[in-house]
What we know:
This protein is an all-alpha fold and 313 residues long. The protein is 71% helix and 0% strand. It has helices spanning 4-21, 26-48, 51-67, 73-76, 86-93, 95-104, 112-122, 126-133, 139-152, 158-167, 171-192, 204-230, 242-257, 263-277, 282-300.
Amino acid sequence: xxxxxxxxxxxxxxxxxxxxxxxxxxxxxxxxxxxxxxxxxxxxxxxxxxxxxxxxxxxxxxxxxxxxxxxxxxxxxxxxxxxxxxxxxxxxxxxxxxxxxxxxxxxxxxxxxxxxxxxxxxxxxxxxxxxxxxxxxxxxxxxxxxxxxxxxxxxxxxxxxxxxxxxxxxxxxxxxxxxxxxxxxxxxxxxxxxxxxxxxxxxxxxxxxxxxxxxxxxxxxxxxxxxxxxxxxxxxxxxxxxxxxxxxxxxxxxxxxxxxxxxxxxxxxxxxxxxxxxxxxxxxxxxxxxxxxxxxxxxxxxxxxxxxxxxxx
Length: 313
């Protein structure tokens, strides 16, 4: 599930917190890292689990309309297409999905007002109106509707951000990734006709990459921080942004420890992360210092890459 970039971000945040705490417990840091990674999967299931409550709101509204003494034409002859959505039904009937959500406490029962706000918003949108009016009646169309809901209703939603902030401090930063993963999962469900359950890590070596990158960065932190200071060029170490330092230490560590990852990939990844998690000037600073130190270690033979083109800049 997690991309390598998100893994690097998780390692960076764990390393930054570890250095700030002055702890020496590497095992505890690795446990924190894995919990942080698993929380992304929890967010994936939490967001996907709003599908059933949205359908139940629609059912309630139809039932309320039918109970009226003087219903409108639409209320007297309701369109049941959304409440019969086969993707939502498949999700509700999937035992593994229900087990995971129940075990991890990933329900929306406390947030019914938000669910209703989402429903009231989506029923005004063209994608919903087109779906309800379309003669196409297929599982694929039902899946497409929920893809549109997740694309349109949750990004930059302040009410949702407030809910996520209360549930987990990690979830605000992970929301965009989780929503993209949900949409990809719905698309895969449409193809396979079954609910897809992602693992936290796409491959087992991704987990090994995460744990080793963190542990090696911790072990090498003091050594590489001193090396960083030597390359500052008229820039006092007390003016060094701590997030930049952590990213540069991680970049050097990755270049040294992982022989199959190209140097260009390593530098580009930490420059991109610096754009979002450090200062406006960090991108240029991280790129320059990291490139200089890595090139120095290549000349010294400490960085040895395997495969063609791995040193290309």
